[in-house]
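Give me structure tokens for this 238-residue protein.
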Amino acid sequence: MDGVSEETTDSPFRSEAGARDTAPQYVLPLVVRIERSAPPGRTDALETAARAVLVLLSDPRALGEGEWARAVRDWQDARIRKVVRRARGAEWRRAEALPGITVPGKAAEVRVFPPVPLDGWPKDLARLQVSGTDLDDPEAPVEAAGGTPVLWLNPDLEMSAGKAMAQAGHAAQLAWWELSDEDRAAWRDAGFPLSVRVADPASWRDLTSIGLPLVRDAGFTEIAPGSCTVVADHPALR
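Here you go.
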């Protein structure tokens, strides 16, 4: 599972560093629980990771003068980096002892932590592995419910589960930024319902051309710089 990812709205081919590049760099850590005997399904993990990002962004500790607010502001002022690591057993218990929020899915569990400096990870998170395990769906995901926000994955890209979790989190964050305060509150109060699905190849071009939030990856891992990875299709943004 390769969970290192970054979103960018700037050209990945530019030769000069932008303001986001020169700012102190932070990363949002996400840890997915993967026990050997009962790994979560891939789609469940992706959806849970996306909700975890939204839960963190809307938490009072991340807003105003909250204890995490400065770290969140510094993270969002620089490159929006997310790293997904995996844990089980004692590793998971140590991760849960650190300040953060555990978000449950159908079977998945993802813990999100306040942003940390790129080179300043807590040791109990830094020792967790980024690569080595992928996830599968035991059966094909059902069609997304009507009226529910959908994060559409690019059907032409292959991404590990960790990479896709980070990308889904990016898309959820972009949708959050675009929503009005009223629509944010309604989504939060409903528990952040959302689906993550692979787009139909025939509809992908349309999804990327109608002004919905679109993640372009910086290309540090797995895929080419500037690749369009996810479209955030929230009904309020239509």
